[in-house]
Amino acid sequence: MTSSTPPTESQAFASLSLPDSMLDNLANLGFEQMTPVQAASLPASLDGKDVIAKAKTGSGKTLAFALPMLTRLDPAMYAVQGLVLCPTRELADQVAKEVRKLARFLPNIKVLTLCGGMPIGPQIGSLEHGAHIVVGTPGRIEDHLRKQTLDLSRVNTLVLDEADRMLDMGFFDSISNIISKTPGSRQSLLFSATYPDSIATLSYDFMREPVTVEIDTQHTQTVIRQRVIQVEKDQRDEVLVGLLSHYQPASCVVFCNTRQSSEAVTDILRAYGFSALALHGDKEQKERDLILARFANRSCSILVATDVAARGLDVDDVEAVINYEMTRDAEVHVHRSGRTGRAGREGLVINLLTASEAHKLDGIQKELNVELTVEPCAKWLSIPLAPYKAPMVSLQLDGGRKNKVRPGDILGALTGAIGLQGSQVGKIAIFDFHALVAVEFDASRRALDGLSEGKIKGRSFRVRRLR
Q: Which parts pass through the membrane (predicted)?
């Protein structure tokens, strides 16, 4: 089931099979009409079905998963019956606060927040007194499971909130481990702003015939705009620099046909001050993994790639694709273009075309069933140089999976003693012997100094900024 229908008169909360006491509490809190994600997901979730809901932040998703969770609670049983996993402490605190308000119609419901960056002792003490609902981050939930201070055997509702963000931060293994400690009979509710392959994999592993709900109030269809610019071979570099200076895409893939071209173009862009990395088949797998991780975490804005190397690219928000060299295969062109304009966003593809490549354009127009206008390049030869910084910075720690370093350990260190906000921390990638964490540019010095001077799991790790 997929729905994007806005609420109508008949989609008031009173139209649902909810206890009168819950409806009264909702009315007192000012909730009368359902938002689109609530109207689309609540009938299925209240019926006990697993639900996958794709909806943006601010769409009312907390209430969408809290109501079915609260209807299944037994207030007389002091055991964890609802578990909500969140990517950051800030979101967990926000969710717990909202759930407490929604639970006012029930007597003595205890909602406990378990997050990293906070002392674990008081949390253990609170768990000893019992809790009905736990809202927490994967790393700290795993800590309690390891210490056997948290029992999830009575959980009947499991919620993954902002699941895509948790997977971006490297919590796939942690989430899978936590889920394995819950009963197979539980209801599972997954909320995510996007639906990458990793979400599909996770949902396939732990959900039972989930109802899928997709709410997108803006772009309902993918729109990819194609531009073709006529260039001489010796003008490609200058036009490329002009395009990047003008559009300044936070994420851009520049396609070349050979390894030599990709390296040469990368060297030119870096010399002009752009954040660029080359990706081609001659790179060692470890280096390729690191380059892809840096592009995905937005600490590198421009990826200069060959077609073979880019097959491992799984990034939903590539703003632009520039074909520095046109491919002779129209199907490959479509594949290149498909790197942008994902998840309902508008995409931009710019093609640099030499006179000798006119036949390639004919094949592409037939494949796309469109007629493309060829523009002169004069405008792009006079754009002032304007290199720009990537929005994030990658910090590499010389400790990884083999050192038992987990994403939650790094996130806890950054948001705990170092004092960063969860929103300032980006994707976290854990490799065998090192880890990569993205932090906002303005917070990178503080994060680097804090991680270098502090400890993770009682150990000091060498930390460096990747450039």
A: none
